[in-house]
Amino acid sequence: MIDLFSTKGFKSYIKQAQKNLDQNWTGRYTKPAPSLYPHQWNWDSGFIAIGYAHYNEARAMQEIRSLFDNQWPNGMIPQISFNPKSLGNYFPEPDFWQVPGNKLTSGITMPPLHAIACLHIYRHAGDKKRALEFLKELFPKLLASHKYFYLHRDPKKTGLVYIRHPWESGLDNSPNWDKPLRNIEIDKSKLPSYKRKDLKHGIPAEQRPSNADYDRYVYLVDLFRRLDYNEEKIFAQCPFLIQDVLFNSILCRANRDLVEIGRIIGQDVEEVREWVEQTSQAISKLMWSSKRRQFDPIDLVTGQHLATATASSFMPLFAVAATTDQAELLYERLNSVSFCALHQGNCFTIPNYDMTREEFDPKNYWRGPVWININWMLYHGLKSYGYKEKSDAMRKDLIQLPVRFGFHEYFDSVNGKGYGSSGFSWTCALFIDLVFEYYDQDKHSLYWPRRGESRRLKKPLILNQAPEFTPVTSNGLAGRLMAAIEDLKETFYDINRGRVDYRAMKNSSEYHQYKKLAAGLQHFDLVSLITKEEKLAFWINLYNTLVVHAIMELNLSASVREVSNFFTQVRYQIGEHTFSMDEIEHGILRSNARPPYRIFSVFKKTDPRREFALNRLDARIHFALVCGSRSCAPIRSYTSDNIDEQLETATQNFINSSEVVVIPEQNKILLSEIFNWYSGDFGKGRDVLEFVLSYLKSYDLSQYLNDHLNTIEVEYLFYDWNLNH
Ligand code: GLC
What is the pLDDT of residues 190-207, one digit of tens each? Predict the structure, then answer.
């Protein structure tokens, strides 16, 4: 491993996303889009603040503050806060809403994402003191906004809150509302006259809600103002009252985060804890349809489940309200043709509606396209339940969407094309969040030791010299070591965080056993390794175990880079020789090839250890060596019987992960730094692209790469050195 850090890759896209957000920033809040949505929208600001949290904390906090400045006396956070300077371009505006106190807001609310955003801001803050003050300031307001729901939107105390307008759901024309809207009889002559303004921005009408929908939207607003926004009267008379899955899931997750906020600032959160309990139980029990094996919204007017099929039914994963059995069924459904299994080729993450339904429309707003915010929540939900492979794949696709098709409002679920507004704020913000999370590039949490901060080992550190050892004669020793490390990792693997708890591992009896096994290496005869397969499996396993062992012994907490000569000084004694990680990697496995950016090979001509080196370099080892950092391959154990197949799989997995991104639209390919550092191992010049091509699974992308091997522009991605713990 070598000392090089590169900030290429997604950097230019991050800049573009930030530029878009700058353009939408008004000085007080961020417009969801440059022209279509000129005011401040409730849940948009939550998503937007999540993006800002990574690079502009002050703005992230201001975004939320500005929204809460318009909190109603009853605690409600309005769906829209109007900007007096931008009136006249949107419908309906304050003159139509006529809310109490003549506030410049609409008279409905939206999914309460703000506690989630506030905790996120705090977690990523560089200035923790300021962030703590911010949490203290926001806590009572957040609490009041949640209390509003339990007081006014759950009169029967079911644990589920209702929405009373499709706009409250955030998914205006979702197929979920077709039936309840159809049930609303409209007397056109009594409907106030109005003019739609959403069709004036160049977005084709077929991608927007229909006129019939709009009549009903307006009818409901008119009803609310006639009832003076009195919640009791509205509950008694409103023909649209739905306990929505997405809404309640967000509330439930937000309650969880509010509990955490309360803990951080030392406030009593017993009541919030009860809400978490009530709502998660109610989601899991009342919304679950065992017939359809999914979560359904409940129509309070008819008292029935709405048998729809939108991505919202997966959201109890985000709430962590689904039981593991329910989660498993959702997972199956996510992987079915209905929601575009990732192996289908033409799949750009989860569309908002079941693709097999007749009314599915890949272009129409909330009736089929892919939305980044929905997928972002689903990604977190899947991650919380430990579906790591799926969530990683989703994140890759999510990052790719704006990179390939632009920062649009929504994307065609069949061909990825972007629709609606361009430069859409939450697409930009969540893209930033996903990329920063992936690379942990956040300036506050990225571990990049400054000069003088990293330790140097003054002399070689041999990790396996304990006098107590387990004698092993067979050449399966490295495999056993690997298996022991794997067991350890399994035991100390934290499913929710997808990381290993190295500290707990170190104090365990399993670790003690492992050390005895490693000590046995001192008596191991390397000459007993004969075939290429035996050597490959032995040394790869050994490298990988040595890394984990070293992380624990050196008490590393953030990165292997905390010890600047980690790869050259930490060693295992094997027979009469010692081997560092660099010697194993470059000397043995890379057949004593020169390490990148160094002048000499690791074994000099007379070094007796050369006799153990492999005769030929197999470039696939790069996808099997685990260097204790996020950007390396996942750890697994290798056996001489299956090594070829295992290396194939490791290579295939790596090449089809976020470490390789083909962007036909820009005739560009983004590659992991590994392909840069070791380009010689893959052949000459552009041979590396042929190598990538031979493993690429997507038919379209490999076809494209094949046709453009000589002209495609290559860029390299960040390398994430943070510990994969
Ligand atoms: C539309 C969307 C809603 C969003 C708003 C502003 O109304 O349906 O979710 O908050 O636009 O972007």
Answer: 999 999 888 877 778 887
